[in-house]
Amino acid sequence: MKTMIKRLCIFAAGAAALVSAALATSCEKDETQEKYVYILDNDKNGIQEVSFNTAGGTQDFLMYSNYGSWKLVPTYEEDLEWLSYWPTEGVGDARFSAMVEKNTTAYQRHGTLNIVVDGLSVATIRFNQAGDEPKLKVNVKESGKTVSVKGETFTVGVESNIDWVAELVDPADASWVTIGDFTPVSQTFTCAANPGSEPREAQVRIRAYGTSVSCVFAIMQADRSSAFEEAEKITVADLLAMGEGKIARNVYVAGSVISDRTTRNYPVAYSTGGGEQVNNTMFIQDETGGLWIEFDDAADNTCDLNQVVTLHMYGQHIERDAYTNGLKIAGLSSTAVQSAVAGTPVEPVVIDDLTKLPAYENRLVTLRNVEFALPYGTLVNINEGVSYLGIKQGAAYQASADYNDLTIEYGHYLRDAKGNTAKLYTTWSFTERALSMIPEGAGDITGIVNKRYKCDVYDGRDQMRRPVESWCVRIRRESDITNFKAPAASRLSKTVMQIGPWTDNAGAMQSVTASVGQGQLKHSVGEDVLGSTSGNTQQMYLAWAHARCTAATWDAVKNAWLPAYGNTKGVQYVAVMAQGWWKNTAAVNTDTDGCCWILSNLSTKGFTGQISLQFTASSNTAGPMYFQMEWADTDNAKTWTPIGNEYVASNWHNSIAAPEYLFVLPDELKDRESFSIRLRATRQRNASDTENTASGTSRIGVVRMSCLDL
């Protein structure tokens, strides 16, 4: 915002008088009249200088002039990078505005805008802007950088809003550390081989010019006794048993690469600010266990699937990952890779019980005879039309993210023959994510087992956000999904009832009825559905589900999936939407303050196995966050029985998707002639975690009730 305007009130009063006189005699042409130009603000005060803080802002100007044609021209053309104005030219009296962009640098900015007539400046306006606080950050861990005893060249990334310089704290270290080339965002260092019998360490300072701001880190180099040639081979299990911290023993491990860097289906780095993903991850496995490795630089991740690699681990760091709560090698140096040669594929461990996944962390397994509990869309059902995938989301979007998947990954529920579940995760960057639709039968899935550690389950009893350990599988390639046969022959569960998915939003629906089995989807506001992508608080309406309804192929030339993604029939499914979720005066099917999705006239007659309900759902930023599933004999029952605890609807603007939900229903609903289930908004609190408002939208993409005979 603007912080100061230099007002010239006496000047303005004179300007007003002169302008009045000029207007009074405007009917008479006077070639000898003295030329004038007056610049005023909106309050008719004279203005020659404007100052802004770092946020920038806009200033409007009023100009009186009898010069005729004029142009606005900055004194220095480079000021156009942060100063803009409109219109750029005119005739006589005029209004114009100028905008100053946000200043993220630590430098003050000054610029002058000239009112130019016939090539000469007849008036000027001075613009001043404060500089931001100096910021400086380097991508070196607090523990410093360990380099090979043989010598090494490496590059340090620098984030700064001010010019900086790299220097050695002790100039004597220049005998083995050379400060090399630099760019505005990086600095290269070259370390000579250590010929001695003692380790050595140098301190490097990255210093911001003209300030006290600096970053200091250590470069550490072992002596010849820590060279790879002297290292002891140990197993992955023995390495992880060392626990967190710097590896002080001179050891190495060897294993087969079980990840595929070319298809890029890796875990996402999780933080309270959102998700990020870089292509620096590799998983290897030996006969004792699997090892998660993150390279210091993604450019060093060059090892291919099935290669046998030898890694020198001396001086590397074992850290506990915040997202998985598992151990990993963080910031592996490029020189740690001693060899990478062709090998044979690792034989995965075959399991048919998903509860056994914790025994195989970071290892390759084949899940035998499993099914997708909700066969829907492709491997990644995410809105492909947004531009902020993978970028950290604002704090307002994080409330529901604690319990749902992040912006750049999608989880499909898998189920085994015993009714156990786990999720198959694929990320936005996965290069084979849309090649086929999710199969409806049962078959085998091969992938890497990863742990997750986040609030997947909301504990409504004490309203605590408590991290929960869960386990998932990540495929390497689409071909890791095998042996899925025709649904009738191989599906583990039977479809008791299914509503949706829908592929056409062209026409209105008088009711939403089950395509399989018995049931109807209603809402508190009624049964009718508008056939459009926008609605009101009086009816449900159709909106895009952002899940492809047909497979796609990757066009490397166009750098896009085809058919092209968009709000287009035949490309993506549509969903049923409703809004106005709290004390909606149009509500007819509820006696509570919170509106409901209602699954009416359901029946499980003849089904005696494990009954579960699966669906996709989400709310927008202003939509309801908290829901409770309940059941009763009829829609108009006065008493409803809770099913489990309160659950959280994902914020659409965080996950950019409608995540899958799976609930096992109570035994009372087995073999039952008729009953209803409702999903009720329980609080006037939206998915941005804002109290006293839940007026936005929430959607459902598909609903399936299934029975698994155990």
From TrEMBL:
<dbReference type="Pfam" id="PF13004">
    <property type="entry name" value="BACON"/>
</dbReference>
<keyword id="KW-0732">Signal</keyword>
<feature type="signal peptide">
    <location>
        <begin position="1"/>
        <end position="24"/>
    </location>
</feature>
<dbReference type="InterPro" id="IPR024361">
    <property type="entry name" value="BACON"/>
</dbReference>
<dbReference type="Pfam" id="PF18942">
    <property type="entry name" value="DUF5689"/>
</dbReference>
<feature type="domain" description="BACON">
    <location>
        <begin position="170"/>
        <end position="222"/>
    </location>
</feature>
<dbReference type="InterPro" id="IPR013783">
    <property type="entry name" value="Ig-like_fold"/>
</dbReference>
<feature type="domain" description="DUF5689">
    <location>
        <begin position="233"/>
        <end position="452"/>
    </location>
</feature>
<feature type="domain" description="BACON">
    <location>
        <begin position="77"/>
        <end position="122"/>
    </location>
</feature>
<dbReference type="InterPro" id="IPR043744">
    <property type="entry name" value="DUF5689"/>
</dbReference>
<protein>
    <recommendedName>
        <fullName>BACON domain-containing protein</fullName>
    </recommendedName>
</protein>
